[in-house]
Write a structure and sequence with these properties.
The chain is mainly α. It has 7 helices and no strands. Helix 2 runs parallel beside helix 5 and helix 3 runs parallel beside helix 5. The longest helix is centred in the first third of the chain and has 43 residues. It is elongated, with a radius of gyration of 29 Å. It starts with a helix and ends with a helix.
Length: 223
């Protein structure tokens, strides 16, 4: 017998010997474990795909809302004198920058930073600076943060058209940031956070039915 064939025969005999030493119950248990592992892997793949699609959809939707800024800019640029166009465009850029800082620091926390053990129906009390403090299990979903940041900045920019050529840069940015990061954030909490007193997902909603917002129209324009 050639050496290769002999070694293969020895491995086969060894394998048969190992199988013969394993009981039928152990083989059945091994097969069940393999089936469970296969099902767990399929569920994990399905969850990963679902999460990926959710994140992609949030980012895509957030980008669409963000491009409202260009719409505001073109609308307002056509409504003011030509000498004030650059000033107005600068206001829109600075407005978004200041709103981003404010929403990062405390706006997102006021809107969605509820504690798991002691939820507040009026305002969030966690996730300041996107940091998960004691009393909350989950941290921040960055795609979720970006999506609602675009709504927050849109609410602040809406005012710029009515205030164009009427206010200086600094007072406008302060007012816009406070409106977007405090007023808007609180209304977000009331309507979009499940713990908010106006939310339809609250176990005890307002008037028994709560408020079901569509595409942010009521929250943004109520601000």
């Amino acid at each position: 017998i050639p050496i290769e064939a002999g070694s293969q025969s020895q491995r086969l005999l060894f394998s048969l010997k190992m199988v013969s030493e394993v009981s039928a119950e152990e083989i059945d248990k091994l097969l069940i474990d393999l089936d469970n592992l296969d099902e767990a892997l399929r569920n994990h793949d399905a969850q990963s795909i679902r999460k990926t699609v959710d994140v992609a959809w949030l980012l895509y939707s957030g980008i669409l809302v963000f491009f409202m800024q260009t719409g505001f800019a073109m609308l307002e640029a056509g409504a003011v004198r030509s000498k004030n166009v650059r000033n107005l465009l600068l206001k829109n850029i600075v407005d978004f920058a200041s709103t981003t800082i404010g929403f990062f620091a405390f706006g997102y926390a006021l809107a969605f930073g509820h504690n798991d053990d002691d939820p507040n129906e009026f305002m969030g009390t966690n996730l300041f600076f996107l940091h998960k403090f004691e009393g909350r299990e989950k941290g921040v979903d960055k795609a979720h943060f970006f999506f609602f940041l675009t709504f927050c900045s849109a609410a602040g920019t809406i005012m710029s058209g009515s205030m164009a050529e009427r206010t200086k840069l600094v007072p406008y940015v302060v007012l816009s940031s406070v409106t977007a990061c405090v007023t808007e954030a609180l209304i977000m909490h009331w309507v979009w956070n499940p713990t908010g007193f106006m939310s339809a997902r609250n176990p005890d909603p307002l008037f028994g039915i709560g408020v079901l917002d569509f595409a942010g129209s009521s929250v943004v324009h109520l601000t």
